[in-house]
Write a structure and sequence with these properties.
The chain is mostly helical and about 130 residues long. It has one domain. It is about 100% helix and about 0% strand. It is built from 1 helix and no strands. It is rod-shaped.
């Protein structure tokens, strides 16, 4: 009988071990389910974050393109304005140069005429003597 009682004790112990293993398995299943849920939630959050980051990158690209387009447009406007200013300055320079040349011709004409008048006034008595 000793063997039977020993077997019964071992059977009881095995039953207790099986019961504890079942409890542990149940607890492990719960823990795995919780971790799986957390992993799924984290994965969804990561996907959402990736989408948000991608949207921001695309928005940044569009805004940067707009900035570069605006810069190119403004640069072109500035260069066109500088070209117009250069052309206007050239026209003004040409006009002033022509005007200065006319004034210089008039001045030399008056100077020549004044020199002739001074010459005539200075040598008038000698000229009158020669004519008489």
């Amino acid at each position: 009988m000793d063997d039977i009682s020993l077997l019964e004790k071992r059977q009881d112990r095995l039953d207790a071990v099986v019961e504890k293993l079942t409890d542990i398995q149940s607890d492990l299943n719960k823990m795995i389910a919780v971790h799986e849920q957390r992993l799924n939630q984290t994965e969804r959050q990561m996907n959402t974050l990736e989408d948000v980051v991608e949207k921001r990158r695309e928005e940044s690209d569009v805004k940067l393109k707009d900035v570069y387009d605006t810069m190119r447009t403004e640069d072109k406007k500035i260069l066109d304005e500088l070209k117009n200013m250069r052309e206007e300055a050239s026209k003004q320079h040409t006009a002033l140069s022509e005007r200065f040349n006319k004034m210089e011709k008039i001045l030399w004409t008056y100077m020549g005429g004044f020199s002739v008048v001074v010459f005539i006034i200075t040598y008038a008595p000698h000229i009158i003597k020669l004519i008489k």
